[in-house]
Automatic annotation (TrEMBL):
Pfam families: ABC_tran. This is Sugar ABC transporter, ATP-binding protein. One of its GO terms (cellular component) is ATP-binding cassette (ABC) transporter complex, substrate-binding subunit-containing. Residues 1-159 form the ABC transporter domain. Keywords: ATP-binding, Cell membrane, Membrane, Nucleotide-binding, Translocase. It comes from mine drainage metagenome. SUPFAM superfamilies: P-loop containing nucleoside triphosphate hydrolases (SSF52540).
Length: 159
């Protein structure tokens, strides 16, 4: 419920919700400057990795050269550069999750909301991706709200 309130999918019954020192309590989700990553990758199967990552930028009419720069930068940080022309069905689960993360990163939001983003991955890949997420958070900065029911994951991500 807290995540849904921050995202703007449910109304807070009292108090305010602030993101980057801005009261967003009464704003619709699209105006809150947040990026969400969920357990379900929600990738467009007919689009390439590049197109999936670029999608939100293109809908916001970001200039093509800026889209190219941001997608390449995110793909490089996530180890996806060799896969930019591939379709999601040609990727592993970990690669698909990184595409979903890339889609969030390129937006450069004030906050990231992550709801069980690693739960579909096997234990080895989950541990590796946890480290990648932690490194990316340190690199990018900003606020990340991370929901998990895995105690090890919570302790790793919180330190």
């Amino acid at each position: 419920t807290t995540l849904r309130m921050i995202a703007g999918l449910e109304n807070a019954t009292e108090g305010t919700i602030r993101i980057a020192d801005r009261d967003v309590s009464d704003l619709p989700p699209k105006d809150r400057d947040i990026a969400m990553v969920f357990q379900n990758y929600a990738l467009y199967p007919h689009m390439s990795v590049f197109e999936n990552i670029a999608f939100s930028l293109r809908t916001r009419k970001v200039p093509a050269d800026e889209v190219q720069r941001r997608v390449e930068s995110a793909a490089n940080a996530l180890g996806l550069s060799p896969y930019l022309k591939r379709k999601p069905r040609e990727l592993s689960g970990g690669q698909r999750q990184r595409v979903a993360l890339g889609r969030a990163i390129v937006r450069q939001p004030a906050a990231f909301l992550m709801d069980e983003p690693l739960s579909n991955l096997d234990a080895k890949l989950r541990a590796q991706t946890r480290m990648e997420l932690k490194r990316l958070h340190e690199e990018i900065g900003g606020t990340t709200i991370y929901v998990t029911h895995d105690q090890i994951e919570a302790m790793t991500m919180g330190t």
